[in-house]
User: Which sequence fits this backbone?
């Protein structure tokens, strides 16, 4: 039996980017490394939680001691999350693609004389909003992320309301901050009580602080 303040708690963490296929060899993706989500999963497990880690194709390896569910696309991630519920808490750190290519080709697109292909997009399911608004089986604590490049607190506060989640961990991902893909993070935690600015620290430290906050919220 694992000891620790989160012993007996089942926690879902989504992490990494998603890959949205264009054809069998090409895809649309984003710059998420999965580092922050991985660190959070590790920190929650270290506090004794049973962690289910649903991850897109990340560039850092998944943590040890958690159940890893690997997915590629947003729709696969949504399905995997649904199967994992119910949980005591859900932390949605994945950078899920907002759009997918509406009809991905099952054959490699060829260069033709007719010019270049044009891609039509379709909206992906919003996993965080869907889980937050569940009438039955909503996790007791739902934590979303907001990657912003300006007006971080205002945008993240609006996002918290729109998504229906309990907390938003917001950060400034402007290229100058070096946060996306980097080892440090400077976050603002938005809760019902307002906005808390945390000092810039290593992603591992952000993860540990967040895991402790989750432990006190679930206690
Ligand atoms: O809307 P936006 O992508 O900025 O919201 C970010 C938050 O929503 C993150 O917690 C992310 O994991 C989650 N999200 C999601 N499914 C989507 C898009 C975002 O779970 N399709």
Assistant:
């Amino acid at each position: 039996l694992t000891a620790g303040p989160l012993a007996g708690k089942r926690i879902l963490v989504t992490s990494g980017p998603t890959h949205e296929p264009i054809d069998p060899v090409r895809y649309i993706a984003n710059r998420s490394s999965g580092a922050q989500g991985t660190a959070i999963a590790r920190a929650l497990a270290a506090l004794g939680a049973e962690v289910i880690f649903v991850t897109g194709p990340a560039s850092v390896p998944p943590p040890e001691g958690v159940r890893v569910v690997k997915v590629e696309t947003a729709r696969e991630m949504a399905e995997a999350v649904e199967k994992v519920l119910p949980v005591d808490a859900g932390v949605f750190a994945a950078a899920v693609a907002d759009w997918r290519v509406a009809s991905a080709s099952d054959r490699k697109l060829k260069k033709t004389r007719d010019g270049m292909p044009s891609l039509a997009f379709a909206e992906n399911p919003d996993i965080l909003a869907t889980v937050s608004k569940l009438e039955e089986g909503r996790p007791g604590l739902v934590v979303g992320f907001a990657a912003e490049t300006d007006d971080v607190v205002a945008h993240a506060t609006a996002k918290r309301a729109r998504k229906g989640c309990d907390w938003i961990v917001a950060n400034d991902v402007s290229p100058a901050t070096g946060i996306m893909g980097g080892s440090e993070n400077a976050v603002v935690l938005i809760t019902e009580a307002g906005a808390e600015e945390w000092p810039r620290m290593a992603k591992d430290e952000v993860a540990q602080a967040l895991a402790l906050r989750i432990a006190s919220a679930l206690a």
Remarks:
- The radius of gyration is 18 Å.
- Helices lie at 35-46, 74-84, 127-132, 152-163, 203-218.
- The mean pLDDT is 95.
- Residues 14, 74, 92, 94, 96, 98, 124-128, 144-146 surround cytidine-5'-monophosphate (CB under 6 Å).
